[in-house]
């Protein structure tokens, strides 16, 4: 029941009606007996500044953000966490003592899903396919979590040089070797996979119109490598099916979705999200 003390949280995005965040957080608030509600707000860069100021005005717990608001919001915040600074994007704002603090829980959420699967990141070699926003968040967090080395395979297009420079900066600040290579160099990719511990598909190959495509030839894989796909719809991509057939441990992107939300919930409330109640709801939506 909404009371005179009910606090507000929400998501600022456009479009926003498809978001699963209200389902997750309202279920969690109810399960933890927290007097709060979570709503979805249509916010783009035309009204972002006013929306962010409303967090203070209405004494909100905080909000989540999706692109393009993740980068555009930074000038309106009082502080950024370490990972948000390195990533250059924010997906969670926490309102604390009238200050707005930006975090990026995407990489942390992915790492929690990796840990849940029994896979360790520390001192391990990671291969990332693609270099988009989610991929960058994961690479930064893996570097912070002391991965041995990270190799990113990206198409050699107009943004290649700037991406290389960006990850060189991250490598310098985290003391983790991060190398960006040409996605078209399949021979080098095959060599890199020989001693890799974790492969992550951060591309869109396997979903929507690209449902039948695979990001690499599954023959490059070996059964000792864990294979994660950031896609969660379909539940199991063609690539994950092939990797599982080889004997690889496989996971889709649902864990990342769930745990990035769980970490935001913890930051707002100092309570844990009841994963055992949230997970079945998300699985039913796949």
Automatic annotation (TrEMBL):
Binding site for shikimate: 19-21, 66, 91, 106, 232, 260
Biochemical pathway: Metabolic intermediate biosynthesis; chorismate biosynthesis; chorismate from D-erythrose 4-phosphate and phosphoenolpyruvate: step 4/7
UniProt-annotated binding residues for NADP(+): 130-134, 230, 253
EC number(s) on file: 1.1.1.25
Summary of the function given for this chain in its UniProt record: Involved in the biosynthesis of the chorismate, which leads to the biosynthesis of aromatic amino acids. Catalyzes the reversible NADPH linked reduction of 3-dehydroshikimate (DHSA) to yield shikimate (SA).
Family, similarity comment: Belongs to the shikimate dehydrogenase family.
Subunit (UniProt): Homodimer.
Protein name, entry field: Shikimate dehydrogenase (NADP(+))
Organism: Enterococcus mundtii
Lineage: Bacteria, Bacillati, Bacillota, Bacilli, Lactobacillales
């Amino acid at each position: 029941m909404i009371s005179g003390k009910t606090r507000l949280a929400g998501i600022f995005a456009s479009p926003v009606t498809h978001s699963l965040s209200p389902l997750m957080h309202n279920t969690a608030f109810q399960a933890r007996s927290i007097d709060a509600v979570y709503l979805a707000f249509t916010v783009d860069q035309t009204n972002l500044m006013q929306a962010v100021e409303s967090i203070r005005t209405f004494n909100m717990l905080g909000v989540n953000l999706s692109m393009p608001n993740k980068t555009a919001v930074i000038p309106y915040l009082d502080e950024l966490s370490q990972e948000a600074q390195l990533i250059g994007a924010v997906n969670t704002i926490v309102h604390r003592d009238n200050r707005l603090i930006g975090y990026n829980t995407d990489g942390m959420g992915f790492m929690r899903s990796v840990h849940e699967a029994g896979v360790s990141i520390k001192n391990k070699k990671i291969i990332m396919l693609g270099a988009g926003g989610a991929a960058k968040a994961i690479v930064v967090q893996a570097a912070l979590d002391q991965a041995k080395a990270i190799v990113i395979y990206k198409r050699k297009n107009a943004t290649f040089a700037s991406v290389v420079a960006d990850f060189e900066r991250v490598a310098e600040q985290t003391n983790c070797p991060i190398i960006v290579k040409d996605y078209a160099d399949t021979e080098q990719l095959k060599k890199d996979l020989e001693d890799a511990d974790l492969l992550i598909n951060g591309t869109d190959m396997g979903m929507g119109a690209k449902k039948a495509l695979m990001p690499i030839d599954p023959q490059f894989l070996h059964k000792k490598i864990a294979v994660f796909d950031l896609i969660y719809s379909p539940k199991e991509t063609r690539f994950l099916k092939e990797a599982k057939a080889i004997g690889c441990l496989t996971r889709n992107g649902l864990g990342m979705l769930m745990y990035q939300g769980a970490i935001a919930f913890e930051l707002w409330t100092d309570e844990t999200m009841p994963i055992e109640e949230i997970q079945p709801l998300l699985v039913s939506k796949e």
